[in-house]
Design a protein that fits this description.
Layout: H1 2-36, H2 54-70, H3 73-99, H4 108-128, H5 134-154, H6 171-185, H7 189-213, H8 215-218, H9 220-241, H10 245-252
Helix pairs in contact: 1-2, 3-6, 3-7, 4-5, 4-6
Length: 253
């Protein structure tokens, strides 16, 4: 079966290369959009003459190269897996929050979702602890079930999106949250600790900088001024790229 191991190895190397390349290309553009919204430093919103976020790409590549020098491949793969699963959890939570907004109490839906996430964490932690007492699993299984029932009771009048919509809300996103947290808790604890440290750095940047400098925090006036300046810059770039028809005809003649 040596040929099978060779195929698996080639597939693994190809998959890791594609994932790394997509991350290095996509992450600077995520930083660019965050910086445009005021959530990241203005340096990440700068682009070169071709419209490429040069500084974001450079900083992202340097950080990724530095991390790869000090960590083993297995640890990096586990961190990538946990980061991807955490992103899926955030998406599932966002689906519930956007589908069930509350004008009277804006914090009600996020609070219930947070309660459900914490209950899933408690259940997953209890499940990975080895024990022969089946009733312990049954007790901890009641925690996410109770929080899920509270979601069904208190969340009413969902908003139906005009385009694609997630089916069976909140059943589908709640199941996704539980499954992703279960997978995270079954990964090595060392990778989980590293990911939490990395996430804490992101929270630190958000609460110390992003929450105060965001477009939403600055108000509608800043948002309108920024959109007007962006429109003017776009029109200027289009005018620079356009070539008059008369010049084209002269060159052709």
């Amino acid at each position: 079966m040596k040929w099978a191991s060779i195929i698996v190895a080639i597939g693994s190397v190809t998959a890791m290369t594609a994932t790394t390349l997509c991350s290095l290309i996509g992450q600077p553009r995520i930083f660019f959009q965050m910086a445009t919204d005021g959530l990241m430093f203005p340096l990440f919103a700068r682009v070169n003459s071709k419209g490429v976020p040069f500084y974001g790409t450079l900083i992202t590549g340097l950080v990724a190269a530095t991390i790869s020098m000090f960590f083993e491949l297995g640890a990096l793969v586990d961190m990538i897996s946990i980061g991807t699963l955490m992103a899926f959890i955030v998406v599932c939570c966002g689906v519930i929050i956007l589908r069930y907004p509350s004008a009277e109490s804006p914090k009600k839906t996020p609070g219930l979702v947070l309660l459900y996430v914490l209950s899933c964490i408690i259940f997953s932690i209890s499940a990975v602890i080895p024990t022969n007492a089946w009733w312990i699993y049954l007790i901890f299984a009641v925690v996410p079930l109770g929080s899920f029932i509270s979601l069904l009771v208190f969340l009413k009048n969902p908003i139906q999106p005009p385009a694609f919509k997630c089916p069976l809300v909140p059943f589908t996103p709640c199941l996704g949250i539980l499954a992703n947290i279960w997978f995270i808790m079954n990964l090595p604890w060392t990778s989980l600790i590293r990911t939490l440290i990395w996430a804490s750095l992101g929270f630190l940047i958000y609460f110390l900088y992003g929450i105060r400098n965001s477009v939403l925090a600055r108000g509608d006036n800043y948002s309108e001024e920024r959109s007007d300046s962006d429109d003017a810059r776009l029109v200027e770039n289009v005018q620079m790229e356009e070539v008059p028809e008369n010049s084209k005809r002269k060159d052709f003649d």
